[in-house]
Specification:
Blueprint: H1 4-14, E1 20-23, H2 27-32, H3 34-40, E2 45-46, H4 47-50, H5 58-66, E3 70-73, E4 77-79, E5 84-88, H6 94-100, E6 103-109, E7 113-114, H7 117-137, E8 147-151, E9 160-165
Parallel strand pairs: 1-2, 1-3, 3-6, 4-7, 6-9
Antiparallel strand pairs: 4-5, 5-8
Length: 171
């Protein structure tokens, strides 16, 4: 895709309104407007929107997210070979990404494309993590890498869609 606007239109077109959708915590989704489209527009069966109190039983929301029909999120790096690297402090996004959701949609700016897995892991630790840590400090929180998922390929290729956007989005 050439632009964030095109990616936004594509992603919202991929999600049926009557299927449950879980948006992972993602600056890419927030800054692109995709999170608002899926969680706040009322056009989609959003797991986040259905959660009564997002500050309440966080584990309940995580469990619901793990079994949503669709999960939409981002990655921290994409290798030129097509591997996807995703880091998480809690691991909440990893279960639906790895196998819980029926369909996965990842949105990433082309700035996340790197030559190889070693560079991808270095990008996660030395680029993405410090920026996420600074972002969370504004809310009195911090970040760390608790778990890393490396997606080599999908057993069911139609399960996953990667939307790569030429226009940089987030970090």
């Amino acid at each position: 895709m050439d632009s964030v606007a095109e990616a936004r239109e594509l992603v919202t077109g991929l999600i049926p309104g009557d299927e449950s959708v879980f948006t992972t915590s993602s600056e890419t989704l927030r800054l692109s407007g995709i999170a608002a489209d899926l969680d706040e527009s009322g056009r989609f069966a959003s797991v986040r929107a259905a959660a009564e109190d997002p500050k309440g039983d966080v584990q309940a929301v995580i469990r619901l997210g793990a079994t949503a029909e669709y999960v939409v999120g981002s990655v921290h790096a994409v290798t030129e070979e097509g591997r996807l690297v995703i880091a998480s402090a809690s691991g909440s996004r990893l279960a639906p990404y790895a196998s819980g959701a029926r369909k996965v949609v990842w949105v990433a700016g082309a700035q996340k494309v790197v030559p190889d897995l070693e560079t991808a892991l270095r990008r996660v630790r030395s680029y993405s993590l410090p920026r996420e840590h600074r972002r969370l400090q504004e809310f009195g929180q911090s970040s760390f890498i608790g778990k890393i998922l490396i997606v080599e390929r999908e057993a069911l290729p139609e399960r996953a869609t990667v939307v790569l956007v030429r226009e940089p989005i987030a970090f």
